[in-house]
Amino acid sequence: MFSSFFPPVNSSDFVVLGGTADAGRWDTDIDPKDGSEIYKRCCKLMPSLKSAKIIGEWAGLRPGRSLIRLEREDMKFGPHTIPVVHNYGHGGSGVTLHWGCAQDATELVRECLQERQKIQSKL
Questions:
Q1: b (16+ CB within 10 A) / e for 35-73
Q2: Which of 105, 118, 106, 116 is nearest to 80 (CA)?
Q3: CA separation for the pair 57, 27 (Å, rounded)
């Protein structure tokens, strides 16, 4: 299955094109056919990309789930309870969702640190 995207990046020098969604495929080998198909689909959406020079290719794993997991969990490790912030399962949407999810995860971590600071100040 294919999807096409070219998210904004903080550069006027390049643009990132993608992607594929291959259920059950867990290798990170670059498939020239995938790259060619991605380029063709993105050029259909934005014809000006036809004059762009391809400067690199990469493949990564983007595990997904039916719902993103973005939450705090207090986990027991021996006698200690440690807060863990989970932020995963974005699948191929991570490129577009990571901005907001990262802000939410940061806020959860900030809350954990504030709680820890309150506990330490009481000691």
A1: beebbebbbeeeeebeeeeeeeeebeebeeeeebebeee
A2: 116
A3: 15
Mean of the pLDDT values across residues 66-80? 94
What does the pLDDT read at residue 9? 60
Q: Which amino acid is at 8?
A: P
Mean pLDDT, residues 35-40 taken together: 90
Burial class (CB in 10 A: 0-12, 13-18, 19+), 22: middle
